[in-house]
Batch of 3 targets.
Target 1
Amino acid sequence: MPQVEQSIEIEAPPSAVFALIAEQPERMPEWWSLFELQERVTPPPTAVGSVSRYVFNLMGIRIKGEHQVLQMENAQHLVIKTLSGINGMFHFSLAETETGTRLTVLMAYTLPGSVLGQRINQHTIEQQNERDLRDGLETLKKLVERETQGI
């Protein structure tokens, strides 16, 4: 299963970063461009077992599905498993630092070959996913820092 991992330092407490990622999943498209849509199926608050619906856009190919929270430790760790669409897991790990939070995101996935196999190759997809995750984390950093600093 291919995987992409990226980390970033965010000048905000882990609780603020975690709140945006875990407690406001519908805001994911604001910071991660791969997601066109992210909406709750299970009402808030987010907990183990919560389900969300998503539309994932990979290089112009839209993949719809649902995912579920498998593990959740407040302000430390969140694991989400796709239930349909792509086969994947998303691990969000947060660690407190002197200046705020170190966020590491690991995305492991298997793409539906029948949908993508003839249009783009696996290496191209992996490179694009790395760029999209890196860009998403940069956008998340700016968003969280702006919101926590009241700017």
Target 2
Amino acid sequence: MSRSLLRSILSVPAVPAVPFVLFLFTGCALYQNLAHPPKVTLDDVQLTGASLAGADLVFHFQVDNPNTRGMVLDGIGYKLRLNGKPMLEGRHDEHIEIAAGQSAVDLPMTVGYSDLLRIVRGLASNPKPTYDLDAEFRFAVPVLGSVTVPLARRGEIPLDKVKLKLDLGR
């Protein structure tokens, strides 16, 4: 086989392949730039008030969005247990814009008085009470669509450091 014929055979498929290869690399770079799921951490829990309905808690989360564009937090599902016993379960379906980088997200919860009595008894019966928080953060992420980020946190409640911020209408 002559060299010119060999070159012509090898060069024909290479010409259409060049744009495909370029598209493949740019498409992958674009996908990687937009498609990282966020990371969520629990920063703090505060007792912020009391009313006739019960006690108000706020869970403070930190969301780290590694993407160059923002995303929307569509909702949070949660289950909270104290000393292994169910305490709170629910959904918070507020749409929150999450910018690129770090954002703070607050999850308010109200504990009814019957649950509060159970909590106080649980805290009093155990010198080192524990909590388990299981949460699912549902995000609308460009390219990926709906992404659920689970968070499981177990810890000990430091009774000497429980924060109380009550607004008594003053």
Target 3
Amino acid sequence: MIEDEMHVVGADRGELETQVAAHPFLVGISAAHIRLLADCAMRAQFTAGQVIFRKGETANRFYLIERGRVALESSVGDKVVRIDEVGAGDLLGWSWIFPPYVWHFDARAMEPTTAIFLYGTILREYCEADPALGYELFKRMSEVMMRRLQAARVKLSEFMQKKPS
């Protein structure tokens, strides 16, 4: 198994396919699409406090969280506001599918976290070649996006109400 600062690589291909297929975000996707997704996948681990990505950076990947929790944060002036928390069974990162392919929030591991990392740049090519895959992922990503944007609106509204006049 090979390990670097962010990723652990070396999971057996069959085991990785099984884990991708079992993740709640992807349950019900066809076996052919699971194989394509597994082609873009690898294992990832993050330590508590580790930044996974920052707002404004290139969004070229996404994560299927298996264990742990990740905070989605935004800066308002000099204050950091926690917009949402993502945990086991959730998807982290939808910006890879929408131009201009940049992150809209910061993501930080709140505790040791394991995930399946998927290369969005490769997956976008697969989606172009297989519109059924693209449509299925778009539908699923859109649900996540709507929940996260609603959470952001609520948190920022709460923050603005607490702000002294």
